Amino acid sequence: MIIKPMFSYAIRHFSSSMQQQNNYKTRLWARKLLANAELSRFYSKKKALNGKELKSAVIIFGKGAEEMEVVIPADVLRRAKIDVVLAGLCDNKPVECTKGLIIVPDCHMKDVENRKFGAIILPGGQESNLAMAESDKFGEFLKKREEESYIAAICSGPLALAAHCIGKGKCVTSYPKVKSDLESFYKYVDDEKVVVDGKLITSQGPGTAFLFALKLVELLKDKQEAKEIAKILLVDDYC
Amino acid sequence: MIIKPMFSYAIRHFSSSMQQQNNYKTRLWARKLLANAELSRFYSKKKALNGKELKSAVIIFGKGAEEMEVVIPADVLRRAKIDVVLAGLCDNKPVECTKGLIIVPDCHMKDVENRKFGAIILPGGQESNLAMAESDKFGEFLKKREEESYIAAICSGPLALAAHCIGKGKCVTSYPKVKSDLESFYKYVDDEKVVVDGKLITSQGPGTAFLFALKLVELLKDKQEAKEIAKILLVDDYC
């Protein structure tokens, strides 16, 4: 059939900005290296050594994390060539998210405990945020970086920040249903999808996750890059 | 420290609609069953036997799929209690998506080849769509279901449909950069984020993935349910 090769050709030569920009050899190497989860972790550890601390971010998530709030920031920041590490809160095993998606993290949080990051990102998801709130190790991880890194939380994520006394008195937003639990600790902002107060960035939920991620691109890189990525992604409410 | 238990309590009792609605015993059972990827596959096979064909969907994806276009439809449809199966195009092994996220599929496409689905969903991602376009098995999977199921493709996904002659002459949209490859085969629509023509649903890219998924909820369930989910997710451009 002639039609199939024709469209295969179209896909092969789909020279849009959605394409990865690595050259053939690099991609071949990356494919081999990333062939399975074990090797992926090794790759992340290697990346952790090459000193790109300022343009880097770690997304920490545990069982029950909101999958869209893990994946949207990871994808958007990687498009801005920010080195994103997905770190499992409890270990480096596959994580079952709140709606059943299973994501293989790059590493365990402890594997990057001595690494600096431009941003630390907390997706929502009740069970994951509860485990964060109850984890002393996670609290130490945050406190050690509170001065130097952006700390960004979405949905019910700000509850885990409050549990570790991060940013007391600052302006925040969150998933609206947890407002009452936060307003004694923070200045709560109702009418903004993303709130930035110094190094603290907060956002409301899955429907604001693109804007949350683009704000992080803006802060870690620049506004122009965030605008270009919004255009590529067809996100039309970022400005 | 008093603050941590306080916020742990708040998270535990976060009684929003974001919560899973299973009771304790069911959740305990589900947790044990879903403890690892192998068991997850077994779970999906069990679900495949219980006859919920009409309120079900399969998302088929291969290496290089656009992760947000896999995860957003999966999460949104599961919130509408649609039984969503994530099927690997080539096998049931973890799939590395285009920006490096590794997702464990529920099963291999061939594990559900005799099952009926309300919708078949094709995320974008050049490499994944190319593999779909070149796969006879995938073409057979689509053609067998063309009359009875919704077929939904986003981003460059419609190229894989065209490669298998699905819906010739119908109205479609896609990621704008692939328009020229599609307009000889379809009636191309530029100015709509989601296009429905009979059983064929198409959409533009990551930034339209929520609307694409909500349209599928509307078609598989009803408009009211889609509106409620949009509200829970804080997606404010669905109407």
Order of helices and strands of chain A: HHHEHEEEEEHHEHEHEEEHH
Count of individual domains of chain A: 2
How much helical structure, as a percent, in the residues of chain A?
Answer: 40-55%
CATH superfamily (homologous) name of the largest domain in chain A = Class I glutamine amidotransferase (GATase) domain
Mean pLDDT metric of chain A: 86
Largest sheet of chain A: 7 strands, mixed
* Poorly predicted tracts of residues of chain A: 15-53
Question: What is the overall number of helices of chain A?
Answer: 10
CA-CA gap between termini of chain A: 46 Å
Order of strands, main sheet of chain A, comes to 5-2-1-6-7-11-10
Oligomer: homodimer
Can you tell me the CATH architecture of the largest domain in chain A?
A: 3-Layer(aba) Sandwich
Number of strands of chain A: 11
SSE-based structural type of chain A: alpha/beta
Q: Strand content of the residues of chain A, in percent? A: 15-25%
What would you say this structure looks like, in words?
The structure is a homodimer of 239-residue chains. The first copy, chain A, has 239 residues and is an alpha/beta fold. Chain A is 41% helix and 17% strand. The first copy, chain A, has 10 helices and 11 strands. In chain A, the strands form 3 sheets. Chain A has a 7-stranded mixed sheet with strand order 5-2-1-6-7-11-10, sandwiched between helices. In chain A, strands 3-4 form a two-stranded antiparallel sheet. About 16% of the residues of chain A have low confidence. At the A-B interface, α1, α4, β4, α5 and α7 of A face α1, α4, β4, α5 and α7 of B. β4 of chain A pairs antiparallel with β4 of chain B, so a sheet runs across the interface. Chains A, B: It comes from Glossina austeni.
